Amino acid sequence: MKKDQLEKELQKKEILMKDEQTGWYYEDHITAIIKRAEKDGAFDHLPGKGKPIQFDDDDISYNPQKRLNKIMKDNHILPSWVKLSKEIEALKEELKSYTVEYNIRKTVEEINKKIVNHNLSCPPSAQKRKLNINDYL
Fold this sequence. Notes:
The protein has about 140 residues and is mainly alpha-helical. The chain contains five helices and two strands; from the N terminus they run αββαααα. It is about 50% helix and about 5% strand. α4 (about 80-95) runs antiparallel to α5 (about 100-120).
């Protein structure tokens, strides 16, 4: 394919564009769509146009983890590992009141299953150790 034909083909696909000042440059299809929409005025009447961005926090750096934690806290949502941790602690308290060996063994077994699930979903610093049945008999 000749150079002129290639340039025309790329222009049809909106990949190769010509600017009078800079010459030829490449532009992907999405960028071409956005530029066309800007030129047609599609973004002229958006709310907040021309106004500074309002950040919720004093810290204006973008921190996805901090943002996620804030959203979860505001909506009263706990991560599954935090819920499991609370269940584990409640079962440990309940375990202290048992005197029958069967109940102790079943509860320790249940706690250890929850600890495995907890450790698979929590950060390394929050992991828990399994209970040893001999400590409760």
